[in-house]
Amino acid sequence: MKLATLKDGSRDGQLVVVSRDLTQAHHATGIAGTMQHLLDDWNFISPQLEDLYATLNDGKARHAFAFDPRQCTAPLPRAFQWVDGSAYLNHVELVRKARGAEVPASFYEDPLMYQGGSDDFLGPTDDAVFASTDWGIDFESEVAVVTGDVPMGTSPDSALDSVRLLMLVNDWSLRNLIPAELAKGFGFLQAKPATAFGPVAVTPDELRDAWQGGRVHLTLESRWNGRSVGRTEAGPEMSFHFGQLIAHVARTRRLRAGSIVGSGTVSNKDWSRGYSCIAEKRAIETIESGAPKTEFMRYGDRIRIEMKGTDGTSVFGAIDQRVAPLQT
Amino acid sequence: MKLATLKDGSRDGQLVVVSRDLTQAHHATGIAGTMQHLLDDWNFISPQLEDLYATLNDGKARHAFAFDPRQCTAPLPRAFQWVDGSAYLNHVELVRKARGAEVPASFYEDPLMYQGGSDDFLGPTDDAVFASTDWGIDFESEVAVVTGDVPMGTSPDSALDSVRLLMLVNDWSLRNLIPAELAKGFGFLQAKPATAFGPVAVTPDELRDAWQGGRVHLTLESRWNGRSVGRTEAGPEMSFHFGQLIAHVARTRRLRAGSIVGSGTVSNKDWSRGYSCIAEKRAIETIESGAPKTEFMRYGDRIRIEMKGTDGTSVFGAIDQRVAPLQT
Fold first, then answer.
1. In chain B, how long is the greatest CA-to-CA distance?
2. Which of A325, A321, A323, A257 is nearest to A72 (CA)?
3. SS3 A111
């Protein structure tokens, strides 16, 4: 099942079911008004939406209309939790190697994750607004899951059963604010502005065999100003699968329905696959030639992030955002 | 105006207006179903609730009933954002001094804050459940504000205008998990389990002169197993006021209605006032005698946190929680 949320002037938008090929949509009116409503009562509501989804895919939904990702908010325009992992250790290794630091041994057993802000997500084609380009504006192409309720102390395997939906993420980062902020010791705050999500959230069965072992075995493409800069494989090099990430958070607390858990920047050891964030390209340049060459993003730059299924069709639709100055 | 949320089996509970003396309550039915609903549309809804509040205080509300804090969830049982400051620098100084570390000069100009989990808050009398007492279970007595919408790049003064409500907080902390977690560099996750809130959220006008310069000038009492261990002053030594904390978060992003911003552990230079968290008592013991003596909390321990107004009545009602083992 594929789902999206349309802008309707309200804070939570309006839930719609989207056809598998992303061409048609149908309001979920009468079944569930919002994505959070669905997640709050998944077992009761989702079968009804699955029926509507089947009808829509068969071309038999009476009030179907053309699906337009530009009308979408994030699938959850605001959420009660957003935690993001850094599950591709190759990314951590590269960034550390570039600044001459070691990766602590514990990083290979204990996931690195941070608690993000979730009150104000960006839709897939919303401008990403920043007051300064001096902050080191960078995209981060990722995948994420949305969970149901997760009990405290859950195991990684059980945690996987709580995965309700998958999404595409652009975890905007302000690279030049990170060193000072992390040096304070309490994690990210200003360095992680509003996160953007792909237009469509999908149930894991939509990925068929590509959803395996708690990982998404598909290629994630990042196009920066129209140029393909990364075609990274999201599956095999994800050092911790989503069940492990969820269980890490659940060690000392419950997770409640609608929690979003991200993978972190998708990264591969094979540099020829390109990059899912500029910081990694700069790390590679530093390792190769002593200094970074690629600049961070400027106003007017565009970033397009998309993931195609084994059949070649877009799974989530595309994130396609422009970097814009703050209007005051 | 005083407001609370009652347990009704739903995830967001039921909004009620509470009389100033905390004896009576009245459902907000027909005006707003939930606290978030109120915050989403504050300017339209709050005047209607203020009318009901006046009627309730006059003893003329026809369907008033006895207010019972044990029936309360947190005022927001789940929220879209919870960020907590460490705005009492005395606390930071003590904890650092105990481990022989300096406070960086920047800490006096740039607030220390962390992004917390907000999907699962505890009510004022809910058990605080932990799987192990080896984790170093500690309370943290704080105050917090709930904001309306805050634009990106707001000034500290403007940020103060966005304060809608004040609340009492118990920011549970797992002290023995903190060093390893912070060493990883991405901030708190497992070391900050579900946070608890006092039964009643109040509008700033309820504090009269005690709400001044973005600070709450009242005494915060912490009673551990019935013994008063702290009577700390929340006002004068708050190094950054709430407008500064909000503006710090808003530097690179908007805050959306219902964001909760905490003060951090209330702490005074005068040690005779006691402590608002055990870690601080242990820091003082370490400074005085080379080692901590006071142990962290055990199963069955109780913590009661309350703040009285200048008239001697409880402002928010009391947080009164028991530490309990995880039942598996």
1. 61
2. A321
3. coil
A248–B190 CB contact, under 8 Å: yes
Report pLDDT for A286.
Answer: 95
The predicted-structure confidence for A248-273, as pLDDT tens digits, reads as follows 999 999 999 999 999 999 999 999 99
Could you tell me where the DSSP H helices lie in chain B? 35-40, 42-57, 89-98, 156-161, 178-183, 242-249, 278-289
- What would the pLDDT profile of A70-122 be if each residue is shown by its tens digit? 999 999 999 999 999 999 999 999 988 988 888 998 999 999 999 999 999 99
The DSSP annotation for A9-58 comes to SSSS-EEEEE-TTSSEEEE-TTT-SSHHHHHHTHHHHHHHHHHHHHHHHT
B4: part of which helix (H) or strand (E)? strand B2-6
Q: Work out whether strand B259-262 and strand B81-85 pair parallel, antiparallel, or are unpaired.
A: parallel
How open is the CA angle B236-B237-B242, to the nearest 5 degrees? 85
DSSP string of B94-143?
A: HHHHHTT-PPPGGGGTS--EEEE--S-PBPTT--EEES-GGG-EE--EEE
B254 touches chain A (CB under 8 A): yes
- Identify the pLDDT of residue B99: 83
Q: B20 near B1, Cβ under 8 Å?
A: no
Bridge pairing between strands A196-197 and A163-170? antiparallel
Residues of chain A neighbouring B254 (CB-CB closer than 8 A): 120, 194
Put simply, the answer to whether A255 touches B119 (Cβ < 8 Å) is yes
CA–CA separation, A249 and A114 (whole Å): 10
Query: Which of these, B70, B219, B90, lies nearest to B143 by C-alpha position?
Result: B219
Residues in chain B with pLDDT values less than 50? none
| DSSP state at residue A98 | H
Opening angle at CA B173, ends B172 and B175, nearest 5: 155
- State which amino acid sits at residue B310: T
**Contacts with A184 from chain B: Cβ below 8 Å:** 104, 106-107, 110, 112
Which residues from A are below 8 Å from B117, CB to CB? 81, 83, 115, 249, 253
d(CA A68, CA A66): 6
State the DSSP string of A208-257: GGGEETTEE-SEEEEEETTEEEEEEESSTT-SS-HHHHHHHHTTSS-B-T
In the Cβ-directed half-sphere of A62, how many Cα atoms lie within 13 Å?
0
Instruction: Give pLDDT < 70 ranges for chain A.
Output: none
* CA count, 13 A, side-chain hemisphere, B254: 16
Q: Model pTM greater than 0.90?
A: yes
What the block records as the tokens of A219 is 């290629």
